[in-house]
Structure formats: structure tokens, C-alpha cells
Specification:
Chain A: This is F-box domain-containing protein. The structure holds two protein chains of two kinds. Chain A is an alpha/beta fold. Chain A has a domain of 37 residues: Up-down Bundle (Monooxygenase). Chain A is built from 21 helices and 23 strands. The termini of chain A are far apart. By secondary structure, chain B is of the alpha+beta class. Chain B has a domain of 90 residues: Roll (Ubiquitin-like (UB roll)), CATH 3.10.20. Chain B has a five-stranded mixed beta sheet, covered by helices on one side. In chain B, β1 and β2 form a beta hairpin. Chain B is elongated. The chains are: A alpha/beta, B alpha+beta.
Amino acid sequence: MLRKASSFPEEMLEHVLSFITSDKDRNAVSLVCKSWYEIERWCRKRIFVGNCYAVRPEMVIRRFPELRSVELKGKPHFADFDLVPDGWGGCVYPWIAALATAYPLLEEIKLKRMVVSDESLEVIAKSFKNFKVLVLSSCEGFSTDGLAAVAANCRNLRGLDLRESEVDDPSGQWLSRFPDSFTSLASLNISCLGAEVSFSALERLVGRCPDLKTLRLNHAVPLDKLANLLRGAPQLVELGTGAYSAELQPDVFSNLAGAFSGCKELRSLSGFWNVFPGYLPAVYPVCSGLTSLNLRDANIQGADLIKLVSQCRSLQRLWVLDHIEDIGLEALAACCKDLTELRVFPSDPYGAEPNVSLTERGLVSVSEGCPKLQSVLYFCRQMTNAALVTIAKNSPRMTCFRLCIIEPRAPDYQTLQPLDLGFGAIVENYKDLRRLSLSGLLTDRVFEYIGTYAKKLEMLSVAFAGDSDLGLHHVLSGCEKLCKLEIRDCPFGDNALLANAAKLETMRSLWMSSCSVSFRACKLLGQKMPRLNVEVIDERGPPDLRPENCPVEKLYIYRTIAGPRFDMPGFVWTMDGDSV
Amino acid sequence: MERSMAFESDLNLKATELRLGLPGSDEPEKPSTTPSVRSNKRASPEISEESRSKGSSCVSSKVESGERDSAPPAKEQVVGWPPIRSYRKNCLRAKKNDQVDGAGMYVKVSVDGAPYLRKIDLKVYKSYPELLETLENMFKLTIGEYSEKEGYNGSDFAPTYEDKDGDWMLVGDVPWDMFISSCKRLRIMKGSEARGLSC
């Protein structure tokens, strides 16, 4: 005889649930039955809200009274590429104000692509006595005044990570606001700051925090000071250097090399702005232990890159500029058999002609030599179907594949055919593919392949591709796990969108810009689907001043239980029942 | 491979019915760059009509302007392409903050008691008197004349600036060029604080 769920002691279930931390599992638990829903919501400690407009803070607070960690995302991904006009939204203040009242014991706040004011930072600094971790990823809207408030007030701060945020009017004094008694820092990432920070304050801070494991400096920290910092923190696991150049002086070099040798735990290196190659050998002592190397900002030539990378036999993640060229990637493939993630960025993205010899061959080499490859971001200027088919067959573990051929609609350069077959092989072979970005010349056929094979695909980015609505229809009707779809400059219009309206409620969001979706279709969609926010973004002015069949500039559709938002700027309109 | 589509009848899609041909049946290979919008071959006649007419009646969208049918396209920069984080360009610019390049040097100007700040381009001015006159006009106040010993003696207002080290200095103490290269922002102090400086 089965015991009923209600006769299972609550405390027992709570204890079991304490081992279940993934959001997806927690969500699944909450759907089992009402009593499990209740027990789960009372003991949930972390929440991830992928779209800050999908739910209101009061709703989160009502359901989960005991949160310790909140993670929010704001603007759509294409905001990274200037496609979302300034002022669109994503202001975090209403959330912070609500969290401050509801969760005095909150410990972590992680934000991505949100607008964070100094006022928000001040509220955070003063409201949470036990605040531990602040991560501001690709955020903007705040200055060092806000950081000063955090430094001065958060006595138990463990992590402050400003990765890729834009910080206004930086002055270096905020770092001195950490009191002398403050010693709990474990992670500090200030790599995005433009101006100097007070070095003496930094040095003292680093020296008095024995748990400091991650330190990512900004370019303004000069090389000759780096050794001092390293000697003060030999326990570092992750380091981002400052500017990596100075006049080559033997004592500075040996001091630096010695300091690096002392960091036996170092596993991750980044930074390397303005590299003077003569100083690169100073890091050689730590190379054999490195698992992650980020040379994305290091403007060094292939030969130096190869020498460096060849020392890093344990490397799992490499971010590098295309100076590495095909020949460097061959060397990488020969040395780094544990490589799981490769990102190759363009050194001259807007140049008309290639400035380096980086082609499809480099990526083929890596796929051949590195069987554990899982994640690729590759900018190049030429590609073939044959290469893609080879790459597809070599890397069965791929979960994230993003290829950017710099020229829009570039065909297979050997056959002049579209790259449909190549990407078709990619989706057919990569059974666990969760994220895909397309480029090059592509017809509707590639979307048919994607709809047929990419059953685990969660995020798809499309640009300058396809011929007709059929392309969009294939994706929306075929990709069962699709969560985020972002499209620009494709001839996709009303039909596929309206025919797959219900699908949109199963996804987090859809972005379409410079496509062919008419204002009429947007209104219709907004009217028929109350649980979607259909936002038209158009800087030309109100869409109802143009014919209804005129395509809108940009369209952002997302599911929500919060209803339409009220903080929209003048160039954003929500299509709801009233607007038709 | 044929696909069937389920239409939601309440969406009233008769006017916009999507009809499907067999995949790959009538699609010619296109070796050269294709325009980003073409009339939809598989659509109903009404749609083709619409897409032809919208080309003429609408303000050109990015999609329409992307069409080039004759000469090879001029190499114009497409917004947000290639997909590189734009903040990186700003980062690189910030590195050159010691050089005053041709792009202007905007600094914020605050006045005690004023509800919002202004921004001015310091590069426009050649000397302190020019700058002070502008500030006086902008904020409708009188700052007066600078003297080394007595600052802006007698004035209710004292112009100060934050330098690279984070310290607040009186405007006028250092040579103009040094001021330009070290000034991060301006603050016009008012009242007793200001007069205190002048004494």
C-alpha cells in the first residue's frame, strides 16, 4: 500500500529537497502535488528569473518567502550589439526596493544586462546585513559612487564582480572605502573599469583578504605593480592582469616571474591588455596548471601565442584573437587535448579584407585534435560545407556552436552554394546542441534541418538568412525545447508568427528586427495572446501613423504573468487588447 | 517531406494563409548575395500584392534599404554586425584618457543647489576667462575674477574641479593645459563653503 504524499513527514521532505539545487529540478518538484509545492516554496533559497519582466517582484516574494539569492536578467541579448535603443528598460530599482523590504537576510544578487543606478547600489549596501555576493554582468547606469556605498557598508562581502559592465565617471577612490577591518573578500572583478584605482588601497585590500581566490584587475594597473599584488595573494586561483607591458627590465621581469612561480594554485589567467611579448615568459611557470586562458584583449602575434599556448597542456578553455591563425590552432589541437571551449575573436572586424590567415581550416584542426570540444565561438571570413560536415562529425559533445562569418550571406567559397548542408550536418550530428548561431548564405532549407534535428536546441541566433516565412515556421514548429530565438534582417513575416502563436508561450522570448512582421500582425498577436507581451520598438515614431501592413522596425515578444509593463520609453509600444 | 500546419481558426488567418510547397521544389540556388526581402513565392496572391505595395508606401525600413539589386553593395557598416560587444570599443577609448583626442572632452558641471547637472566640452575653451564666462552665463551667476592669493574673493560662488587623483581643486591654480588634462568634473560651490575658499 503506497503512503500518501501527505503522510510523509515535512521535515524529511525538506531535508531531501536541500540536496536539490538546480532550478529545473526544483520547478519539477513543485509540480508534483500541492503539499510538495508548499514545502518546496518555503525552502527555496535561490531563484533565477530569466526575464525581469516575466514576473513582478511581489509575485516572487509572495511565493518564495525565504530566498537568499536572486538572479535577474533584463535586456534581450541583442542589446550587446547596439540593437536595443538606450532607455528601453531593464531598470532594476523596483526589484531592489521590493527585495530590500522582503528579504533582510538576502545574500546574493546577480544581474545581467540591467540598468543599475547608484541609488540601487546604495539600497543594496544598506538593506542586507549579511550581503555576500554582487555580480553585475553587462550592466550600466551606475558610477563608482554606488560601488563606494557597497564597499563601505557590506561588512561580509565575499564577491564583487563587475564583468563587462559600463561604469560611469570612474574615480579610483571607492576602493579605499573598504574598512581596514574588512577581510572577507574572496572574489573581485574590476576588469571593466576605465580609470585607475588607488593602487595602495588595492594592495592593502588584497594583502588582508586571505580567502581571495579571484582577482581580475583593469588595464590601468601597471605591470611593475603586479608582482607586489601576487606576492600578497599567493593563494589566487584566478587572475586577470592589468596592462601587460613595460620597458623590458631584467629585475622587473625576474620579480614578476618569481611572483608567478609563487602562485601554485593559479588555474585561470586573463587580462593581458597591451602585451609586450618580452614579458610573456614570466607566466610560463604557471602554464602547465592553467585550465582557462583568456587572451581576448591580447594583441600579440601568432608566434608568441603559439609559444604560450603550447605550454598549457591542461587547458580547457581558450579565448583568443584571430592572430592565432590556422597554424596556431593546429598547434593548439596538438597540445591541448582537454580543450572544451574555444572562442576566436576578430582583431579587425570592420576591415574589408582579411588581415590574418584564419580560415575554416583552423576550426577543422581543433575539432580533429580535441575530442572533448563542447563550446565554440568562431569569427572567420570564409567557410565551406565540407569543413562544417567534418567539424560536425568530429565533435559529438558539442553543446554550443556559434559561427560568425563576417561577411553577411557569404556562400561556401569553393562551391558558391549556401551553407545549408553544412549547418544541417551540424544539427544532425550534435545531438546535445543547446545553442546555435548561424551565419553565411542560408536558405529556408537550413531551417528545415534545424526544425527536424535540433530537438534539444534552446537558443538560436539568426542573421541575414532564409527566404520566406517557411524558414521561421520550421524552427517554431520543430524545435521542441526552444527557449530564446533572436532574428535580425531575415525575410520572416506575419504568417509563421501568427500560425505559431501558441509556441511563443512556451518560450522565454523572441526578438525580430529588420524583418517583415507587420504592425497589423503585432496587434493581432497582442490581442489574441494575453500572456505574451508583444512590444514594438520603432524609433521612426508611433506605428499607427504608418499603414498597418508596414513592417515594424523591431519586435520583442516574451511570455509574462506580470501583464504589460509601465516603464516603457516613447519608442516602445505594447500590443494588448486595447490597442487594436 | 511534407509538413502540415495547424491553423488556429480563431486567429482568422484566411487572409494571410500560408501555403506550403514541397520543400526544395522550386528554390533555385543563389550563388550571389540575395536581397533580404523577396516576394514570398509560396504565399497567397494577396500577400504578394501587399509585399510589393509596402515597398513603395512605407518609410524604408532597414530591411528595404538592405536590398541592392544591381551594383555590388558599397561597404557600409551594418549596425551590430559583426556581433561584437560594443563596450569594448569604449574600453579601448578609455585607455587613451591621457591624450586629448579630437573627439571633445565632456565633463559634468554641477552647481550647489541646482536640480540637475550640465555637461560642457572643455576643448572648446582656450583659457580660464572663457570657461568662467560660459559658466556664469550657463548658470546665471557671478564668479568673478581669480587671483592667486585670494581665489575668487568676495564671490558667492567658487568653481572647483575634481582632478585625476580624486582631489577637489580650485579652478585657476594650475596652468590651463594642466587643468585640461587633469579635470574630471566641475562643481561650483556656493555660499559659506565657497567664501571659505576665498579667504
